[in-house]
């Protein structure tokens, strides 16, 4: 058993806050979750005879961890508030008559009510209770209770989280997660003592974009993944560390696959990006990878697609290019949401070789040169960086709903809002953000008033030391503020920052040219009307979605779990994704397809393997191959960039049109999530609200004011 | 105690046991809400103007930012107004009143057993069955109450809707055991006969005298006084004559 001795160290260390305690500066006290107070001095303890020094206020469990002693635990989680209700981690402390070493006793009590259904439990093999029962538990029971084990009714939390409440050990990790991190204040504990149970009291689904994380948090099998139920055991899965592409955050994920199938996706800890959370779309859209896939090259003949070989398809493209008569800027490439950096670079090089400068992005006005330009990085990136967001003291959200565009980022804002006096303002559509905000107005007029310094929020913003403005990409070209790089563009599309980074934008001349040959690279959001009827269209991608239906030739590419490629997130952080499973059928890695096509078109690209391609990427921008770090733009450069942006927009008139949120349905935003059955169920349950008789429906605006 | 009896009631009468020897232990209340005709969020609830004033006064006892500290007194107030039980509408109303998430109110209301989440009869009879009362015969009292009200079980309401009986833990009147609480008053030193008398009085709409039913004064020794039995001396007694 552990023995701890404590003695105060010479109180010199001015270590700020420890881990996630956060300092509690409750301003108006309206924020509901209490946090621990600020602490200063260091303390030296002896754990099992080993001395460690930790900041005052550190949890004993963390101190023991620091000393290399592993403490068994259920309720403690380093990212959640401390509850201390499972009693598993008790240790012996010198001169203290109470917490006594009693792990085994606690284990016995926990097992008294826990069903012995490990063989049919989805948590089996990765269950804390199972592991700790092996380590600390007894091998036979002393309970022969004729009254039986506690039985608790299962809850319906929606299409993502499956409950089996008999297995619950009441650690309340899910409750704390829902209330603190996700901002779902409907989850709690009802009853008392042996009858305590987790739930919402009224029948309700757990409407949160982060709800899947409670599955990871649950130390037992009470909360498990509904889509993954009874599909695989952890020991038969291959784990591949990769990067998510469902939004532009670049969340770090672990793709668990069996054979050629992705079985599930789990978060990977990266404190600089997603901490250890991922959004439900990231976690559950993977079943979309199995449906609607393009597995063989297709050539349109008349009204229907005919399967073809790669040679035939590539030749058909070469013929199409020749017969369309497209020259120079009449050859257009459109970069879609899920295009990886490698293939973007290859495609840009190919088009440049063909004499074209016509690069469009798959978004409204995507074929026009972006107002912010691509010369200064800080004009289109999330400059404060994601962890830097927590330093901001005033945040203005313009035309964005981070809850849908970057759910994990939103939890950071909520964390900051709970633990610091952070003030949030919003211009745009009223939304439920999971934290309170001051509503400034729906349109550019409100923005203009804010810039003019009218209203109390503008005054707060002026007084703030680290103000921050977040724009969603769609609405970014209307306003600038030169400050501590608090100019943050929140991209919502995984490929967009990389496209800007490599200059995948049209020249002025090219943007006005009518294209005769269009190459859609993963472009599935294009407006069909924007494609001239006589143009020859090639679609390269992995799903038979909108883009494929417009094409004359379809080339089957690989999805993000099937290729090892670079992804640049909204901060400009390059991260390397890794292939977990092979691409299905005849589909190939995207950059290889473009390389092969270049050969057929008679302008071979000068790279034969991915390493030489990455050398080329390094030539374009060294940041593309400096993985996992962000590089700050110097303040001078950022300021001059903003100046050009201000000049470019000075003639722009503010329209009275309200900003609209770009995502109306969080669960279906790209070909993968649109093909996903789980996401379709979520859309029904949460976006449409079908079939779930909520006791008291709450409107978004009401919810937002309730928080404030 | 309660659990044991419940178990006894639920035990299968046949002596043959299957592989599992256990049977479900039922809790005495449901800790989730189910919409019913008499209890659903659509039923309106609002404080009366008088209670509204009281509520404001209660809230003013707490710092402005800790308004939610008033949740227990407000639930209590609302329960009184709502015929002695806390419906889902009551909880939602209190949550709205205190600007807190409804779930936080549900947590409080389900934790404290004195918030009745199901309707109760006109008179709420709580019979104490904790050890001192049990030693003094509370088992008989409980049985008397149940039988006298038409053979109902603890937790049940009599057919005429006039009484709800529950078994409770110690009410702190052990020196007058056995005892029961009817509405807001204690009825102590009960015997089956006096119990019936008290219940009959309530059934007639009267309010019997509260306190010990045995005729003794508060919790004086039931065997009569054993100390300080002599007459207390008066002013001037035992003094020198000039001071008498």
Summarize the structure.
Chain A has 708 residues and is α/β, with parallel strands linked by helices.
Secondary-structure map with pairings?
The complex is a heterodimer of chains A (708) and B (244).
Chain A: E1 3-8, E2 42-47, E3 50-55, H1 60-66, E4 92-93, H2 103-113, H3 128-136, E5 161-163, H4 173-182, E6 188-190, E7 197-199, H5 213-217, E8 223-225, E9 238-243, E10 252-258, E11 261-267, H6 280-284, E12 298-301, E13 304-307, H7 310-324, E14 331-335, H8 341-353, E15 358-361, E16 394-398, H9 402-405, H10 407-419, E17 423-427, E18 438-441, H11 444-451, H12 456-463, E19 467-472, E20 487-490, H13 496-501, H14 508-512, E21 517-521, E22 536-541, H15 546-550, E23 553-556, E24 566-568, E25 574-576, H16 590-600, H17 610-620, H18 635-650, H19 671-675, H20 677-688, H21 700-707
Parallel strand pairs in A: 1-4, 14-15, 14-21, 16-17, 16-19, 17-18, 19-20, 21-22, 22-23
Antiparallel strand pairs in A: 1-2, 2-3, 5-8, 6-7, 9-10, 10-11, 12-13, 12-23, 24-25
Helix pairs in contact in A: 2-3, 8-16
Chain B: H1 2-10, H2 49-59, H3 71-81, H4 88-97, H5 102-111, E1 123-128, H6 131-135, H7 138-148, E2 163-168, E3 180-182, E4 185-188, H8 192-203, E5 211-212
Helix pairs in contact in B: 2-3, 3-4, 4-5, 7-8
């Amino acid at each position: 058993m552990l023995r701890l001795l404590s003695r105060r160290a010479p109180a010199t260390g001015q270590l700020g806050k420890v881990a996630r305690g956060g300092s509690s500066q409750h301003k108006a006290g309206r924020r509901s979750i209490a946090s621990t107070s600020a602490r200063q001095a260091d303390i030296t303890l002896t754990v099992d005879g080993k001395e460690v020094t930790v900041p005052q206020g550190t949890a004993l469990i963390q101190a023991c961890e620091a000393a290399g002693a592993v403490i068994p635990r259920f309720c403690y989680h380093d990212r959640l508030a401390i509850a201390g209700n499972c009693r598993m981690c008790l240790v012996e402390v010198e001169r203290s008559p109470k917490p006594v070493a009693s792990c085994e006793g606690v284990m016995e009590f926990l097992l008294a009510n826990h069903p012995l259904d490990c063989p049919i439990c989805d948590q089996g093999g990765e269950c804390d209770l199972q592991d700790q029962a092996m380590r600390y538990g007894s091998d036979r029971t002393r309970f022969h209770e004729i009254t039986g084990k506690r039985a608790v009714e299962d809850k319906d939390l929606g299409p993502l989280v499956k409950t089996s409440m008999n297995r619950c050990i009441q650690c309340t990790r899910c409750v704390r997660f829902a209330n603190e991190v996700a901002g779902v204040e409907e989850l709690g504990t009802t009853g008392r003592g042996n009858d305590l149970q987790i739930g919402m009291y009224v029948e309700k689904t757990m409407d949160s974009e982060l709800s899947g994380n409670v599955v990871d948090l649950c130390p037992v099998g009470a909360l498990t993944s509904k889509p993954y139920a009874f599909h695989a055991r952890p020991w038969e899965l291959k784990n591949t560390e990769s990067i998510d592409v469902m939004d532009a955050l670049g969340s770090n994920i672990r793709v668990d696959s069996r054979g050629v199938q992705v079985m599930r996706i789990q978060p990977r800890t990266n404190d600089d990006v997603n901490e250890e959370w991922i959004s439900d779309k990231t976690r559950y859209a993977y079943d979309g990878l199995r449906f609607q896939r393009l597995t063989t090259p297709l050539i349109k003949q008349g009204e229907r697609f005919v399967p073809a070989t790669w040679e035939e398809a590539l030749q058909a493209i070469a013929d199409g290019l020749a017969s369309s008569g497209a020259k120079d800027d009449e050859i257009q490439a459109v970069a879609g949401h899920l295009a990886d950096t490698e293939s973007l670079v290859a495609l840009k090089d190919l088009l440049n070789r063909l004499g074209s400068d016509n690069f469009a992005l798959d978004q409204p006005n995507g074929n026009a040169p972006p107002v912010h330009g691509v010369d200064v990085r800080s004009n289109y990136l999330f400059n404060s960086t994601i962890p830097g967001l927590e330093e901001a003291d005033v945040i203005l959200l313009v035309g964005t709903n981070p809850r849908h565009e970057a759910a994990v980022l939103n939890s950071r804002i909520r964390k900051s809002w709970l633990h610091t006096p952070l003030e949030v303002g919003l211009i745009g559509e009223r939304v439920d953000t999971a934290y309170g905000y001051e509503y400034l107005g729906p349109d550019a007029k409100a923005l203009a008033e804010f810039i003019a310094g009218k209203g109390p929020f503008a005054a707060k913003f002026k007084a703030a030391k680290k103000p921050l403005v977040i724009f969603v990409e769609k609405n970014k070209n209307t306003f600038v503020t030169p400050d501590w790089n608090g100019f943050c563009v929140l991209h919502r599309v995984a490929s967009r920052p990389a496209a800007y980074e490599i200059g995948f934008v049209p020249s002025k001349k090219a943007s006005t040219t009518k294209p005769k040959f269009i190459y859609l690279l993963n472009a599935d959001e294009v407006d069909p009307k924007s494609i001239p009827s006589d143009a020859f269209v090639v679609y390269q991608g992995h799903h038979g979605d909108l883009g494929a239906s417009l094409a004359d030739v379809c080339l089957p590419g690989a999805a993000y779990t099937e290729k090892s490629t670079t992804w640049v997130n909204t901060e400009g952080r390059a991260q390397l994704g890794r292939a977990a499973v092979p691409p299905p059928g005849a589909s190939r890695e995207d950059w290889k397809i473009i390389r092969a096509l270049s050969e057929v078109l008679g302008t071979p690209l000068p790279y034969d393997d991915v390493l030489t391609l990455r050398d080329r990427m390094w030539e374009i921008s060294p940041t593309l191959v400096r993985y996992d770090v962000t590089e700050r733009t110097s303040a001078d450069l950022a300021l001059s960039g903003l100046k050009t942006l201000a000049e470019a927009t000075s003639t722009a008139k503010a329209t009275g049109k309200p900003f609209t949120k770009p995502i109306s349905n969080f669960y279906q935003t790209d070909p993968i999530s649109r093909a996903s059955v789980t996401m379709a169920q979520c859309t029904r349950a949460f976006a449409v609200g079908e079939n779930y008789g909520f006791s008291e429906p709450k409107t978004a605006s009401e919810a937002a004011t309730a928080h404030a | 105690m309660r659990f044991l009896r419940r178990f006894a009631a639920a035990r299968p009468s046949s002596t043959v046991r299957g592989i599992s020897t256990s049977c479900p232990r039922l809790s005495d209340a449901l800790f989730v809400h189910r919409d019913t005709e008499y209890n659903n969020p659509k039923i309106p609830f609002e404080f009366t103007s008088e209670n509204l004033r009281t509520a404001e006064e209660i809230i003013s006892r707490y710092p402005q930012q800790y308004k939610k500290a008033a949740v227990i007194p407000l639930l209590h107030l609302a329960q009184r107004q709502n015929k002695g039980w806390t419906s889902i509408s009551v909880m939602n109303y209190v949550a709205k009143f205190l600007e807190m998430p409804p779930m936080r109110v549900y947590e409080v209301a389900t934790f404290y057993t004195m918030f009745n989440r199901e309707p109760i009869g006109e008179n709420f009879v709580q019979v104490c069955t904790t050890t001192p009362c049990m030693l003094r015969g509370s088992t008989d009292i409980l049985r008397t109450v149940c039988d006298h009200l038409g053979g109902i079980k603890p937790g049940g309401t009599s057919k005429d809707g006039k009484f709800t009986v529950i078994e409770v833990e110690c009410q702190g009147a052990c020196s007058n055991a056995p005892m029961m609480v009817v509405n807001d008053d204690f009825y102590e030193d009960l015997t089956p006969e006096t119990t019936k008398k008290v219940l009959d009085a309530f059934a007639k709409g009267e309010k019997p005298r509260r306190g010990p039913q045995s005729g003794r004064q508060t919790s004086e020794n039931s065997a009569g006084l054993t100390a300080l039995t002599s007459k207390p001396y008066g002013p001037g007694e035992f003094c020198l004559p000039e001071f008498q």
